[in-house]
Design a protein that fits this description.
68% helix; mainly alpha; 2 strands; Four Helix Bundle (Hemerythrin (Met), subunit A); 225 residues; extended; 10 helices
C-alpha cells in the first residue's frame, strides 16, 4: 500500500466517523463542528483525486461561509434540547426502518455501479481549438464542461436557488408588534431643532436675604446642640 492509498483510508475513516457523529451528537453546535470536519476530509479526498479546484471550492464555500453561518445561527438560537428529545423513542422504530431502507438503497447503487479501477490520468498538456499545445487546467476543463454539456441543469439549479433565497427572505420579513425598527427615511429627514431644545438658564442666582438668615440661624442652633 502506497502513501496515497494510506491517506485515502485515513481521510475516509475520519469522514465516516465525523458523519456518524453529526447525526448522533446531542449538542447542535458539536454536530455542526463534526460536519465541518467531514467536509474538510472530503476536500482531502478531492485533492487525492487531483481535483484541486473542487477541493478549494469545498473549503472556501462550505467551511468558510456556509458552515460558519450555520454555526452562528445554531449558537444564536435558543434551542431547548430537552424539548427536542420528547417523543424520540416513540418514533425511533419508524426512523430506524427508514434509515435501514436508505442504507440498503445506497449500498445497492454503490456496489452495483462502483468498480475499482486505476486513478485518472491527468495530462500535462492539451491541444486547444486553435491547434496550440497549452498546459492542462483542471479549472478550465470543469468550467468548459459545466457551461457546454451541463448548461441547462446549471441554469435550472441557479433558478431553484434564487427562488429558495427569495422565499427565505419573504418568510422572515413578517411584521412584528414588538419590533423596534426605525424607518431610515425618517432618520434622514430629521432636523436638529426637532430633537434638541436649547433652554437658557442663569449661571448663578442669589438667595433671598430672609431665606439666607433663617438658614444661618438654624445652622447655628444645630451646632450648639
Amino acid at each position: 500500500m502506497d502513501v496515497q492509498t494510506g491517506f485515502f483510508y485515513v481521510f475516509s475513516l475520519v469522514m465516516l466517523f465525523a458523519a456518524f457523529r453529526v447525526i448522533t451528537a446531542r449538542n447542535p453546535v458539536h454536530a455542526v463542528l463534526f460536519l465541518m470536519l467531514a467536509f474538510s476530509q472530503a476536500a482531502g479526498i478531492w485533492l487525492l483525486l487531483k481535483a484541486e479546484f473542487l477541493a478549494v471550492t469545498l473549503v472556501l464555500v462550505y467551511l468558510g461561509a456556509v458552515m460558519v453561518l450555520f454555526l452562528f445561527v445554531v449558537m444564536m438560537l435558543d434551542i431547548h434540547i430537552d424539548s427536542l428529545r420528547q417523543g424520540f423513542w416513540r418514533h425511533f422504530p419508524l426512523a430506524l426502518a427508514i434509515g435501514a431502507l436508505i442504507s440498503l438503497e445506497m449500498a445497492v447503487v454503490l456496489f452495483g455501479g462502483f468498480r475499482a479501477g486505476e486513478a485518472p490520468v491527468v495530462p500535462e498538456t492539451v491541444t486547444n481549438a486553435a491547434g496550440q499545445v497549452v498546459q492542462y487546467s483542471n479549472t478550465k476543463a470543469l468550467g468548459t464542461l459545466l457551461y457546454t454539456k451541463y448548461l441547462y441543469p446549471l441554469e435550472i439549479a441557479a433558478v431553484i436557488l434564487l427562488v429558495a433565497m427569495i422565499s427565505a427572505i419573504a418568510l422572515t420579513l413578517r411584521e412584528r408588534k414588538d419590533s423596534k425598527k426605525i424607518d431610515p427615511s425618517e432618520q434622514v429627514r430629521v432636523k436638529a431643532r426637532d430633537r434638541v431644545e436649547v433652554v437658557k438658564l442663569a449661571i448663578t442666582r442669589a438667595a433671598p436675604a430672609a431665606e439666607a438668615s433663617a438658614t444661618g440661624a438654624a445652622t447655628v442652633e444645630e451646632a450648639k446642640k
